[in-house]
Design goal:
The complex is a heterodimer of chains A (767) and B (278).
Chain A (H helix, E strand, L loop, with lengths): L1 E8 L4 E6 L2 H9 L1 H11 L9 E10 H10 L10 H26 L6 H13 L1 H29 L1 E4 L8 H18 L3 E3 H12 L12 H13 L4 E4 L1 E3 L7 H5 L9 E3 L9 E5 L6 E5 L13 E4 L4 H14 L7 H21 L17 H10 L1 H5 L5 H15 L7 H11 L15 E6 L5 H14 L4 E5 L2 H14 L5 E4 L12 E5 L10 E6 L11 H9 L1 E11 L4 H9 L3 E5 L12 E4 L3 H4 L7 H12 L3 E5 L3 H14 L5 E4 L6 H9 L5 E4 L12 E6 L8 H8 L13 E5 L4 H20 L6
Parallel strand pairs in A: 12-17, 12-18, 13-15, 13-16, 14-15, 16-17, 19-24, 20-22, 20-23, 21-22, 23-24
Antiparallel strand pairs in A: 1-2, 1-3, 3-4, 5-11, 6-11, 7-8, 9-10
Chain B lengths: L1 H19 L4 E2 L6 E2 L11 H5 L20 H4 L7 E7 L2 H11 L7 H22 L7 E4 L4 H7 L3 H13 L2 E3 L2 E3 L11 H8 L3 E3 L1 H11 L6 H7 L4 E10 L3 H16 L6 E10 L1
Parallel strand pairs in B: 3-9, 4-5, 4-8, 8-9
Antiparallel strand pairs in B: 1-2, 6-7
Helix pairs in contact in B: 5-7
């Protein structure tokens, strides 16, 4: 989109800004009466006194305007005389256009016909000198054109002087201010592209859920958004914008050196130059970059607007209170309710950050490695709190530890110096700022089948009690859909919003938000409690962008709780070294130990399929499991192995219902249902069923357990499918492989150590 | 001589460096890594490459459909000679085009351009057999409305036309305008489309004058000589999807009218190529 660039002049200096609704800026900065009115409505004061304003006469692409506003010499030292301002402005604009134009002209020579090429070839020998002359002429023309471009608009730039009394429309100002406050309240904690913000505002305006919201026109929403930005309630910026120059490098600009090439960064997903693609853009009329990384969430462009709902307690809470006073008619709209929830959340933050929870015992050590006895005592202390959730002792202890960490305002002791160093280092240009070092994170490492979801209920409850907003994010959409009814049942009086691609609740906000990790790109500093479930699962694992999104959604003073049965090595290391507060839940909810895998030595599946018979050792074990009436998971590595293996097994066990499934199977969910219902007894599958599936009385066979696709985490997860029910806690697990590989050893070691810890802590049921 | 040596040097350096480069490439569509490298459509993995529903045998000589065609019989007078499409419009192509047009994944441009290029070369081959002198004079594209252009940031037909022009050394002109902003074609029935697309396009006369100037090298007097020889001026009209043919027909009519309006009485032939035939 295109915006208006202007420079404010005052006695103290100057300041370049841009606007999507310049008439609002003009009134705000130059008409004191208007500003007083607006600020009284929004309960906010600014200290900038401007005397006049230099408006650039043409609309500029957003990217250029943002870059110029960013590069404008510092506020205090900025030029204050009109002549220098014009000079600097002209130079910056022509620089910015020049950079874009250079890229474009490289793209321009589109085509030349065959005839033209022939003609050129003929000419080439004879008139070399002519061509040189021609080129010089063209360069001259270009230079002249550029000079024109930079001279003319600067000369035409209009200087508007301020006036204290202009008889501005007072009622209009008040209404606009109220609209701005309302928009800001609705957009709090969000990071939205222009079209998304319009959709959200339209959805809020539509009365009732039935009203299919008409997309509000941008021109109607722009003044309110611009005013909200001027009042500091929102931040408007380019969706793809240059990285701010680190202070260390600013001296180069001061010395009038060539400005360094701007490195672009997607402000929504945080990806850098590598994921930018520059294309000629019809909207801004130049080469304009867009971010390829987060394309699935709508296109984030250099000339596209990103609206960030910054959450500054002073502004929004007061602001909305006044907006409510002004527009009582709006109280029936659903938007109003959400906004009110936001305000109460605002009040909650301070309580959250300042006062430690009364439930938390005083003797809490921030050191993350805690003895299990310690945890048991904490659990006893807060028993009554957990009674409602019917947690097992291990669950209660872990929940108590997490709760205490959340309530305690401090970060872990081990991390502080390290973090300070990182904090310093982040200001250097070469250190990536993608991770927020100051963030508080807590790892809840619970074995498979421990009842992780129940453990987070008390955390959510505590967060809601303080008026905070909670988020539960997980990489998988089906997990979100499965969690939804459980959360609604557990918190019947709270408003729950479930977000995933194509969710009908897309633009709502509530006390509890359930979302896939991709949806987190649309939030910024929004939640006081962030729970990330299955953080080691695809696609969250190894995806920098999703990590960036998850790091950004947690509000200041909030806390992130990471849930996993198999945390990645990096987190385990951090936990071991004391950089990451954590608690381990070594036992399942039914308080029986995890089944330890047994080994069966058989050849690789690839070879098995060439042999006449399946090996007797495998068939014996399968038969024993079938005889005891168990449901059998049989994991293989390759999709192409599923069908042949199913054939072989059907041949070996003609009376047993055997099916196979994989990610390419359309019948997948049906087959899993039938498997749960015991009409299928043996299911051959790939890693798609490695997590999230609970089948009572099941045994697990992992073929090719030495293959490279099965790492320690996935072996532990697959082994975790066995023995999950109270009725049959001792399921059987077999690693079938030719080699006893390192990851098998590590998986067995991990399972054994969890069992040992459970026994030592006295969590296991005595036989 | 010296030039050829240096060319040889750079070529061999390029090949040598290629040895160091990883041989895997990430598929543009599905993001999977593929080890096999092939010369045709190297940006795709073998699976995606095989999923392209090429139109290899043309059944309807007018619209280039691979099966029997009812539409072309129903049309009274087509303003274009024929249409050729590269692929059938099935789910795969629908997804690819949606990724490109609606999601704005402009990285697909070379891929789609390459697909369209096969339609162009097919057309060229077919008509060269009939007449040795066959060649296209200018490439034009189907325009979109300003609103749509601002919403998307680009006109897919214009980009594809530019790609064709660049790859085959033709001249590309922007001579058509959309008279009004109509609903998306994909939401309409056949009857509505036929009714709506009449008078939807107008040509830009100054742009046509400029184009003629460029085509005939500023020498308008040379024109009659060429026209008297019985040769006609041939346009290549580019669009992304051909459904009923009403859009390209209206555009072709607009081109004819525009050229006549601008004061050129000449024989015009308009051929269209589209990426997908639905």
């Amino acid at each position: 989109m295109q915006v208006t660039l202007y420079v404010l002049l005052s006695a103290k200096g100057s300041r370049a800004m841009w606007s999507v609704a310049p008439e609002v800026d003009r009134a705000y900065w130059l008409d004191r009466g208007y500003r007083n009115e607006v600020e009284r409505t929004a309960k906010r004061l600014t200290h900038w006194e401007s005397q006049s304003m230099l408006l650039w006469p043409e609309l500029l692409p957003l990217g250029i305007a943002v870059a110029i506003a960013q590069r404008w010499p510092d506020r205090e030292g900025g030029p204050s005389s009109e002549r220098t301002v014009r000079e600097v402005l002209g130079r910056l604009v022509s620089d910015a256009w020049g950079a874009g134009a250079g890229a474009q002209s490289a793209e321009e020579p589109r085509a030349s016909t065959q005839s033209e090429r022939n003609a050129q070839k003929a000419r080439r020998e004879s008139a070399k000198s002519e061509r040189v002359a021609q080129e010089a002429k063209r360069a001259d023309a270009q230079r002249a054109r550029r000079a024109d471009a930079q001279e003319a608009p600067v000369a035409r730039a209009e200087l508007v002087r301020g006036a204290s009394e202009r008889g501005a429309d007072r009622a209009g100002a008040r209404a606009l201010a109220a609209a701005a406050c309302r928009a800001a309240a609705l957009l709090q904690g969000r990071a939205l592209l222009r079209s998304e913000a319009l959709a959200l505002l339209a959805a809020a305006d539509a009365a009732g859920p039935a009203g299919e919201a008409q997309q509000a026109a941008w021109s109607a929403a722009a003044p309110a958004l611009q005013l909200a930005a001027l009042l500091g309630q929102l931040r408007l910026g380019g969706a793809v914008a240059p990285q701010p120059q680190p202070p260390l490098l600013r001296w180069r600009l001061a010395l009038r050196a060539e400005p360094p090439r701007q490195r672009l960064r997607c402000q929504r997903c945080g990806s850098g130059e590598a994921r930018m693609r520059r294309t000629p853009c019809a909207v801004c009329g130049r080469m304009c970059a867009y971010c390829e990384a987060c394309l699935t969430m709508g296109r984030s462009r250099e000339c596209g607007l990103l609206i960030l709902g910054t959450r500054t307690p002073a502004s929004s809470a007061l602001a909305f209170a006044s907006a409510r006073a002004l527009t009582p008619a709006a109280s029936s709209a659903p938007a109003f309710a959400t906004a009110r929830a936001l305000v109460s959340a605002e009040a909650g933050v301070s309580a959250f950050a300042l006062a430690p929870s009364p439930a938390a015992p005083a003797a809490y050590h921030p050191a993350p490695t805690k003895g299990p006895q310690d945890l048991a005592s904490i659990a006893a202390a807060s028993d009554e709190r957990f009674a409602r959730w019917q947690l097992s002792p291990a669950q209660a202890a872990a929940a108590a530890a997490a709760l205490q960490y959340i309530a305690g305002a401090g970060t872990t002791a081990g991390g502080s110096i390290f973090r300070r160093v990182v904090g310093l280092a982040r200001r250097l240009p070469f250190v990536s700022a993608s991770r927020q070092a100051s963030q508080r994170r807590f790892l809840l490492w619970a074995v498979t089948g421990a009842g992780k979801t129940e453990m987070i209920f008390p955390l959510i409850e505590a967060c809601l009690e303080r008026g905070g907003r909670a988020l539960i994010a997980t990489p998988r959409r089906d997990v979100v859909l499965e969690l939804d009814p459980r959360i609604r049942r557990a918190f019947p009086e709270a408003s729950v919003v479930t977000l995933y691609g194509g969710s009908p609740q897309r633009w709502e906000s509530g006390e509890i938000t359930l979302a896939t990790t991709h949806q987190l790109f649309r939030f910024r500093s929004a939640f006081d409690l962030v729970v990330i479930d299955e953080l080691d699962a695809f696609p969250f694992h190894n995806d920098e962008l999703l990590h960036y999104a998850a790091d950004n959604v947690c509000a200041a003073g909030g806390c992130t709780v990471l849930l996993s049965a198999t945390p990645p090595a990096e987190l385990r290391r951090a936990a071991k070294r004391g950089h990451l507060a954590h608690v381990r839940v070594p036992v399942r909810f039914h308080r029986h130990p995890l089944p330890v895998p047994a080994l069966i030595r058989i050849p690789m599946v690839r070879q098995l399929l060439h042999q006449r018979r399946l090996p007797g050792r495998l068939l014996d074990a399968l038969k024993k499991s079938l005889d005891r009436g168990a449901q059998l998971f049989l994991f293989v590595q390759q999709i192409r192995h599923v069908e042949p293996l199913v054939q072989r097994l059907r041949h070996a066990f003609p009376n047993i219902a055997i099916e196979g499934t994989s990610s390419k199977d359309a019948e997948r969910s049906n087959k899993v249902m039938e498997f749960r219902g015991r009409s299928i007894r043996l299911l051959v599958t790939t890693t798609i069923l490695e997590r999230g599936v609970t089948v009572p009385k099941s045994d697990v066979f992992i073929l090719d357990a030495d293959g490279k696709l099965f790492d320690e985490a996935s072996l532990v997860q697959m082994a975790g499918r066995a023995g999950r029910s109270k009725e049959d806690p001792a399921g059987r697990v077999y690693f079938c492989a030719a080699v006893y590989s390192r990851s098998q050893q590590a998986a067995i070691r991990q399972i054994r150590s969890m069992n040992k810890l459970a026994k030592r802590s006295g969590y296991l049921i005595k036989k | 001589m010296r030039k050829s040596w240096s060319q040889l040097f750079f070529k061999s350096m390029h090949n040598l460096l290629a040895l160091l480069r990883p041989s895997t490439s990430t598929c543009l569509i599905c993001g999977r890594n593929d080890h096999r490298t092939v010369s045709a459509l190297p940006s795709l993995c073998s699976e995606c490459r095989e999923s392209i529903p090429w139109i290899s045998r043309i059944h309807c000589p007018i619209c280039g459909r691979p099966e029997r065609c009812g539409d072309c019989g129903r049309r009274h007078a087509a303003a274009f000679i024929c249409n050729r499409s590269a692929v059938q419009y099935n789910d795969t192509i629908r997804q690819w085009l949606a990724l490109y047009k609606y999601r704005g994944h402009e990285g697909l441009e070379p891929l789609l351009g390459e697909l369209l290029l096969t339609a162009y070369s097919g057309l060229l081959q077919e008509f060269s057999q009939r007449s040795k002198l066959f060649r296209i004079d200018a490439v034009v594209h189907v325009p979109v409305s300003t609103e749509r252009l601002h919403e998307r940031g680009f006109n897919q037909a214009e980009r594809l036309a530019a790609y064709i022009a660049k790859q085959s050394g033709l001249l590309h002109f922007d001579i058509l305008r959309r008279a009004r902003h109509s609903q998306k074609q994909s939401f309409k029935t056949r009857g509505e489309r036929l009714r709506d697309s009449r008078e939807l396009f107008v040509s830009n006369v100054p742009a046509i004058l400029k184009m003629m100037d460029r085509l005939f090298g500023g020498d308008v007097s040379a024109m009659p000589a060429r026209l008297n020889s019985g040769e006609s001026v041939r346009f290549l009209l580019v669009d992304d999807i051909y459904t009923t043919g009403s859009t390209v027909n209206a555009c072709a009519r607009a081109v004819r009218e525009g050229v006549n309006w601008a004061g050129f009485q000449m024989h015009i032939e308009i051929y269209t190529i589209t990426l997908a035939r639905s």
